[in-house]
Amino acid sequence: MVLKRIFDIIASFFGLLILSPVLLIAGLLVRFGSKGPVFFRQERAGRHGKPFTIYKFRTMIVDHGGSSISVKGERRITPIGAILRKFKIDELPELWNILIGDMSFVGPRPDMPDYAARLKGEERDILSVRPGLTSPASIKYAREEELLSRVPDPQKYFDEVIWPDKTRMNLAYVRERSFFGDIKLIFRTLFGEKGISSGHPIQP
After folding, report:
1. What pTM, to 2 d.p., does this model score?
2. Whole-angstrom Cα distance, residue 66 to residue 155?
């Protein structure tokens, strides 16, 4: 959608401009809060499965050797990183990914290549759109790390419950998406629902 891409370019440009003081302060906190680079870079699967480098503020210690999922309270998360994650500030550098066309404001969150490779049949339609900063699935699981902290095997729970549920929601989004629907999702992300955060984990 041309209108969506125009919106992404304008909104990400002014977002980077307006939030530049926040980006600068966050970068300095990361730089002096622990050893390592300011930015976290990782390969993700983009539109049509094409790999791209996603940018975030680093929130973990260097060479932690942990899994690809994060759980609230992990020792590998730095004190500054925990604050950045709580307020989603660590994801602000993704505005650059949106500006250059790797991502969109709204779309399925970009998976790591090994997870994207698990998509089968019609599920691969998810890769037909640019991945996004937010989506119905990311709104539902906005507090995913807290949810995972309440299960005995976080990796298994993610693989068998959360990821399949996200896949279903992402496929539904791709089939029903619209520009004005995306605008509503942006407002829901900023001012609306906070996702699953309490009670028992969802059942498979």
Report:
1. 0.92
2. 11
